[in-house]
Design a protein that fits this description.
By secondary structure, the protein is α+β, with helices and mostly antiparallel strands. It is globular and about 90 Å long. The N and C termini lie far apart (108 Å).
Length: 655
């Protein structure tokens, strides 16, 4: 036997493992043993949903499955807002909005604060985040927030804890609101970490971790919630006309819509009584039925119906509060929720109030005291950056958003139909040589908006591919827009109803007097006031020689509206001449208007722009786009449908 017969090569690994595989980790072995002792159900492979991506996943995962007894509840609403690089207009608008009047305990505007100051600069914060890809917005509402004298220490503690969980400093500002029954805080967090990189927060942490941390802090501040407090809060839910925790527990137990109380008996006498009380309440609402002793049938639409009922109750409370604040008293039966999808096309009346229906998504509502004798609550949808501020007591029209294709869509389809399904600005100009550049650009902007929704395609050359079903796709686009903004509001008169009977200009009352199909007016509520204002306006027109009685009827002067408008503009022009020394030049159709846009004037006949020149000035119909040119030179041509403006030397704005 040679010396090499006893030699061997060592191979690490378990006995019998000739391939030397890597030893299984301790955690995997524990999981394998636990699985063998489980229920025997096969484990399905986990589906990737992205909830673990980002900072704070570990804390979020733990918080999702753990809630200690006595922990006080906190409602957290979160929204991630994507922003355009270099455009912080939406962020600045949101900051202005959460600082609006009437949100403090004293009814004053809200005050921004941050980690180290009770007065943070919102403009500076918005400028720091001008290049951010996104922004986080939170609403934090502790259930027992009324017991806190000041929310600022709680919010600062919460943000410090979030920084610890996420492993980065956060750049944030907040505002506390006390204008509802539950004080809450709005927190805006920049989408950058302390290294200047995009801040990505795990979905689990947003959904569960923040709420768990807030609950810990409020419980530490106020002490654990006692059993008596918990019972009292549940008792308030027995007769509530909304979806409650009791309803959630009831829906958790039924099998195929049938709830058998004996299957999961409630041993706590008070909780059993509250559960039975809630079932009886649902029975009265028609949402549950006792088919046998201890056996209940739960309606499948129960949750949706209760949520709608809760929303309606909140709306009615909002209407009652705003109407009372405005000194208007209407019967509860005359309160109406404006719903364009249910057939309500439009409503005209006095603007009573404007408010917020969803603070997280900036959805707003208005309350209109209608000439039909009823008060209407209308959801206007998401606030747009271009929306003009509304003024109370003005006369407005709320109209449901139409989902049918517009004229611009029909023109695009017609141009493309003549060019084998292709649309471009050049082809449009060939189709209609008289069309202005701004008019054609309006069609291009329409297609660009539809492209962002994936409804049309644009080629590399800039041409647009228009399918034969383009009008149907335009209808889909309008339907999607209606979900964001279900109704539109238009100001018919910037003056209140009391100011209109003796106004010198062409008022909305005059338009009703000469209309072929005037509005239907009720004999109660604002309708009665409106009828009185019409009588006073008729008498004023008779005294001014602009109307006369003829065979028992009132005959109005020819071109009444134009006459009244010119009279008012002449009066205002004379007043400006006295103040400035400039002559008033009345524009006529076809005139070329040049000068510097100075300011906007609100008159009975509408809003007009003051265009100044070296020796004189003109008053022309105002449009919001002119505000961008304040103090700049503008040029326009008066046409039959408005004025096409040139601002500076490059940009052309059609009005």
């Amino acid at each position: 036997m040679s010396d090499t017969d006893d030699e061997f090569r060592v191979r690490l690994g378990r006995i019998g493992n000739r391939r030397g595989r890597k030893a299984t980790s301790y955690v995997k072995r524990v999981r394998k043993i636990a699985a063998k002792g489980g229920t025997g159900r096969p484990r399905r492979r986990a589906v990737f949903i992205g909830s673990r991506i980002g900072r704070g996943h570990a804390k979020g995962a733990v918080s999702a499955s753990h809630r200690s007894a006595g922990t006080r509840r906190v409602v957290i609403k979160a929204r991630i807002v994507r922003a355009k690089a270099g455009d912080n207009g939406a962020a600045r608008a949101h900051l202005r909005y959460i600082q609006r009047d009437g949100v403090t305990r004293e009814g004053d505007p809200g005050e921004l604060y941050d980690v180290g100051s009770n007065r943070a600069d919102g403009k500076t914060f918005a400028e720091r985040g001008a290049e951010d890809r996104h922004q986080f917005r939170f609403i934090v509402a502790p259930e027992d927030s009324n017991e806190l004298a000041d929310l600022k220490p709680f919010v600062r503690d919460l943000m410090r804890q979030m920084e610890s969980d996420l492993g980065t400093r956060l750049d944030w500002v907040a505002v506390d609101h006390f204008n509802t029954g539950h004080p809450h805080s709005h927190i805006v967090v920049r989408g950058k970490d302390d290294r200047g990189k995009d801040l990505v927060i795990a979905r689990d942490y947003i959904a569960h971790g923040i709420r768990a941390r807030a609950s810990e802090l409020i419980t530490r501040e106020l002490g654990p919630e006692s059993e008596l407090e918990a019972m009292r809060k549940l008792e308030n839910e027995v007769g509530a006309e909304r979806f409650t925790r009791l309803d959630r527990a009831i829906l958790r137990d039924p099998t195929e819509g049938t709830l058998r109380l004996a299957a999961k008996p409630e041993r706590h006498p008070e909780r059993y009584a509250m559960r039975m009380g809630r079932l009886r309440t649902l029975e009265q609402m028609g949402l549950a039925q006792e088919t046998a002793p201890g056996v209940w049938r739960v309606m499948p639409e129960m949750e949706q119906a209760l949520r709608r009922m809760g929303e309606r109750c909140d709306i009615i409370k909002t209407m009652h509060r705003d109407l009372t604040a405005a000194g208007i008293h209407r019967a509860a039966g005359d309160h109406v929720i404006f719903d364009g999808q249910a057939g309500a096309a439009r409503v005209i009346g006095r603007l009573v109030a404007e408010g917020v229906s969803d603070e997280l998504h900036d959805r707003r509502y208005v309350i209109v005291d209608g000439i039909d004798g009823r008060t209407h609550y209308a959801d206007l949808g998401v606030r747009q950056a271009t929306d003009e501020p509304l003024i109370r007591n003005t006369i407005v029209e709320v109209r449901a958003r139409d989902v049918s294709p517009r004229d611009v869509d029909r023109t695009i389809a017609e141009v493309a139909g003549r060019n084998r399904g292709v649309y471009s600005a050049e082809l449009h100009r060939e189709f209609d040589p008289k069309a202005s550049g701004e008019y054609i650009q309006a069609h291009v902007r329409r297609l660009e908006a539809m492209r962002r929704q994936g409804l049309v395609e644009r080629s590399i050359s800039g041409d647009w591919s228009i399918d034969a079903d383009h009008l149907e796709r335009a209808g889909q686009f309008e339907a999607a827009q209606r979900s964001r903004n279900p109704a539109r509001i238009t100001v018919l008169s910037w003056q209140s109803l009391d100011e209109l009977p003796g106004a010198s200009g062409a008022t909305w009352l005059d338009k009703q007097l000469v209309a072929r199909s005037p509005e239907v007016i009720a004999s109660r509520g604002l309708g009665a006031e409106f009828e009185g204002a019409l009588r006073l306006r008729r008498q004023w027109l008779l005294e001014q020689g602009l109307a006369r009685e003829q065979s028992g009827r009132i005959a109005y002067a020819r071109n009444l509206l134009q006459t009244l408008e010119r009279r008012e503009l002449a009066e205002v022009g004379a007043r400006i001449t006295r103040d400035t020394g400039l002559d008033y030049a009345e524009p006529k159709p076809g005139d070329r208007i040049t000068g510097t846009y100075h300011r906007m004037l609100t008159l009975s006949s509408g809003r007009f722009a003051l265009i100044e020149r070296t020796r004189d000035f003109s008053l022309v119909p105002w449009r919001p786009v002119l505000e961008r040119a304040k103090g700049q030179a503008v040029t326009g041509v008066v046409g039959g449908e408005g004025i096409s403006w040139s601002i500076g030397q490059k940009r052309v704005l059609g009005l």
